[in-house]
Specification:
Layout (H helix, E strand, L loop, with lengths): L3 E4 L5 E4 L1 H15 L6 H8 L18 E4 L4 E4 L1 E3 L5 H18 L12 H16 L25
Parallel strand pairs: 1-5
Antiparallel strand pairs: 1-2, 3-4
Helix pairs in contact: 1-2, 1-3, 3-4
C-alpha cells in the first residue's frame, strides 16, 4: 500500500510503500557525500528516515511515518522537493542522477536493496517533470497541489 510521497517540481507525486521511499532517500544521501556542498542536505535527509541500523521492532513505526528519537518528533515520509531551496533541489536531483547509474550496476550489488524497476518508475517521473510533460499525465495523485513549505537547510 502506498504510504510515502515524493513531490516533483511540477507537483506530480511518486507514492509507494515506505521501504522504497527510505531506499530512495538513502541513495540521495550516499551520493550527496560526493557532491560539493551536499553534506548539509545529506545530514537533513538522514533525519527524514530512520537510522539504517535501528531495529524496526523497537521503533514507533506506522509506514507513512515514524517517531524519531534523534529529534523527539514524529516524522512523516513526505518530501515535497519544491520545499527545498533552489540549490538543494539541484543537489538532490544531481544525487539521484548519480545514483541511477549505480542502481543498475551489476558490479555494485550491495549499493541498495531497492528494486531497479521501482527506481526507474521514480526516475521516469523526474524525467517527465524536467521535460515539462503535464504533471497529471503520470502521477500517483489525481491533483496538483501548491507548496508553501520551506524545508531543509539553507532557508535563512
Amino acid at each position: 500500500m502506498a504510504s510515502c510521497f515524493i513531490v516533483f517540481k511540477d507537483g506530480r507525486c511518486f507514492s509507494r510503500r515506505w521501504t522504497g521511499y527510505d531506499y530512495i532517500i538513502r541513495i540521495a544521501i550516499q551520493e550527496l557525500a560526493f557532491i560539493e556542498n551536499g553534506k548539509p542536505l545529506a545530514e537533513w535527509l538522514e533525519l527524514q528516515i530512520p537510522p539504517e541500523d535501528e531495529d524496526e521492532d523497537k521503533r514507533a513505526e506506522s509506514g507513512y511515518g515514524f517517531y524519531s528519537a534523534r529529534t523527539n518528533e514524529w516524522i512523516n515520509r513526505h518530501l515535497d522537493t519544491r520545499s527545498l531551496t533552489e540549490e538543494n533541489q539541484k543537489l538532490f536531483w544531481k544525487a539521484i542522477e548519480n545514483g541511477r547509474i549505480k542502481v543498475h550496476d551489476p558490479e555494485l550489488p550491495d549499493y541498495t536493496d531497492l528494486n531497479p524497476e521501482y527506481f526507474d518508475l521514480f526516475y521516469e517521473m523526474y524525467r517527465l517533470s524536467e521535460d515539462g510533460a503535464p504533471p497529471l499525465e503520470y502521477s500517483h495523485w489525481g491533483i496538483v497541489t501548491e507548496c508553501h513549505e520551506k524545508d531543509g537547510p539553507g532557508w535563512e
